[in-house]
Amino acid sequence: MKIELKPLTLITIISIILITIIVLHPLIELGKYDYRYLYATRAYGYSMLPTIHSGDLLVIALKDSPYYHPDIGDIMVYRYDNFFVAHRLVAIRGDTYFFKGDNNNYVEEVPEEAIIGEVIETIPKTNIIAEYLAQGLLPPP
């Protein structure tokens, strides 16, 4: 028995493959890391719009990890009072880091000892499958 694929069926198969790749891309990227050096947390707030939305899952390379290589323009996580903040690194002067939220109009001065790590992957809250699988792969916060 010979099965012949009709053009619509072939387009459907290709579409499913492409959607699967797009949905799982963040997890494929995470596959190159040793999870002992990673931390996952959920973003809250609007200071990093449009880059990061409230509810997105942030995967962070901890400061003492081999994956921590901050450059100007990277999104970093630091401790401020009793919570974590994820903002973009705009300058470094000695042991002082300067950050700005993409949606903010001010710069924050942060001592090096308050730095937690560097955001290496953002999994949008709308990518439910990748987010669910990533939570199972990463250690709890």
Describe this structure in words.
- Strands 1-2-7-3-4-5-6 form a seven-stranded antiparallel sheet.
- Helix 1 (7-30) packs parallel to helix 2.
- The protein is 24% helix and 33% strand.
- The model has no long low-confidence stretch (mean pLDDT 85).
- It has helices at residues 7-30, 128-137, and strands at 38-42, 57-62, 75-80, 83-93, 96-100, 108-111, 115-123.
- The chain has a single domain, classed as Umud Fragment, subunit A (Ribbon).
- It has two helices and seven strands; from the N terminus they run H-E-E-E-E-E-E-E-H.
- With 141 residues, the chain is an alpha+beta fold.
The SS-based structural class is alpha+beta
Strand content: 25-35%
Can you give the helix content as a percent range?
A: 10-25%
Major sheet summary line: 7 strands, antiparallel
Rg (CA only): 19 Å
Multimeric state: single chain
Task: Give the overall pLDDT as a whole number.
Answer: 85
Q: How many distinct beta strands?
A: 7
Please name the CATH architecture.
Ribbon
CATH topology: Umud Fragment, subunit A
- DSSP helical segment count: 2
- Give me the side-by-side strand order of the main sheet: 1-2-7-3-4-5-6
How far is it from the N-terminal to the C-terminal residue, by CA? Answer: 55 Å
What is the ordering of alpha helices and beta strands? HEEEEEEEH
**Unreliable segments (pLDDT under 50, ≥5 consecutive)?**
none
- Number of domains in the coordinates? 1
CATH class: Mainly Beta
Indicate the overall shape. Answer: elongated
